[in-house]
Write a structure and sequence with these properties.
Blueprint: H1 27-32, E1 44-45, H2 48-57, E2 64-68, H3 74-81, E3 85-89, H4 93-102, E4 108-111, H5 120-126, E5 134-138, H6 144-152, E6 160-166, H7 167-174, H8 182-188, E7 191-199, E8 204-205, E9 212-219, H9 229-240, H10 247-254, H11 261-268, H12 282-295
Parallel strand pairs: 2-3, 2-5, 3-4, 5-6
Antiparallel strand pairs: 1-8, 6-9, 7-9
């Protein structure tokens, strides 16, 4: 494997090396003499079977893949082996330098940057890559939602996203009525989501404290949203503000409207006012938003 010789100093611009990780660490991390950084949410996926399954989800051999969070290149190796052209994004400069050296003779470009600092269009330009492309990533739990939104709402979105997330989050992303959540609505407005499989903590180094899940998002050609997206999500947030309450009560508590108006809105949208937010489909939320927009001018005020 390229880059196997032990180095006594960090790559240019990299972080200082620390004491070697434990014997349980992958050999690449022991070679680099660095510990995973909690501040970056670094839980490296090391299980070869899981890595191979994720790589297989990206599609055919001629695919273009944007990998978020390359780490030391464990998934990168599987993607390249499968014939993909890869643009890897990694914020840790020491790992960037290692991955660049490790795969120096293969079809890989690496962007050493925060994935949220650049738009997907800008990232693709750095890698000399054009759509269509697939985004894949083992996402740190603390930036899961921002990264997913970053790609779903992009001017140049991927055709598919394969993301490793906390199991509970993955279940919310892939849920269907009557178990929808605010996150589920936000995701399904842009993509069809399915939970591919669950990954146990021992598949990582260091192991996280919770189970993880791989979720596949097939992006829609056109988002299932009404023209006024801001109002749509305003109505959805109001509905989910008190998810255990019936919709007419939740809406009245978060959106300004005359007393009793929520029941009329729901009737206008063809929705039973006794239902709860988690039972509504994307199409029903869109109808409710349209009913709200029709009624609001006659109320003489606004909750903005």
């Amino acid at each position: 494997m390229p880059g196997r010789a032990r180095r006594s100093s960090p790559p240019q611009g990299g972080r200082p090396f620390t004491r070697p990780p434990s014997r349980a660490a992958p050999p690449e991390l022991r070679e680099l003499r660095i510990d995973p950084r909690r501040s970056l949410g670094q839980n490296f996926l090391t299980d070869e079977d899981v890595l191979a399954r994720i790589a297989a989800l990206t599609g055919g051999p001629t695919r273009r893949v944007l990998e978020v969070g390359a780490g030391y290149g464990a998934l990168t190796a599987h993607l390249l082996k499968g014939g993909a052209r890869v643009l890897a994004v990694e914020i840790d400069e020491a790992l960037c330098a290692y991955v660049r050296q490790r795969f120096r003779d293969q079809p890989l470009r690496i962007a050493c940057t925060d994935v949220l600092a650049l738009s997907p269009t800008e990232l693709l330009a750095l890698g000399d890559m054009e759509p269509p492309y697939v985004m894949v990533g083992n996402l740190p739990y603390y930036i899961t939602a921002p990264v997913i939104r970053h790609f779903l709402e992009a001017d140049m979105p991927p055709k598919r996203m394969i993301v490793m997330v906390q199991k509970e989050v993955g279940e919310r992303m892939a849920a269907r009525p009557p178990r929808m959540s605010l996150l589920g609505v936000a995701v399904r407005a842009y993509a069809e989501a399915r939970l591919a499989f669950v990954v146990q903590p021992h598949a990582f180094f260091p192991p996280p404290k919770v189970d993880s899940a791989v979720v596949v998002l097939e992006l829609r050609r056109h988002p299932a949203l009404p023209p006024d997206e801001e109002t749509f999500f305003r109505v959805v947030r109001a509905g989910f503000s008190q998810p255990r309450k019936q919709l007419h009560n939740a809406l009245n508590s978060r959106l300004w409207m005359p007393p009793g108006a929520a029941a009329g809105l729901l009737e206008d949208a063809g929705i039973d006012s006794m239902r709860r937010a988690g039972s509504l489909s994307i199409e029903e939320w869109a109808r409710l938003t349209e009913a709200y927009e029709r009624a609001r001018p006659g109320w003489g005020s606004d909750d903005a």
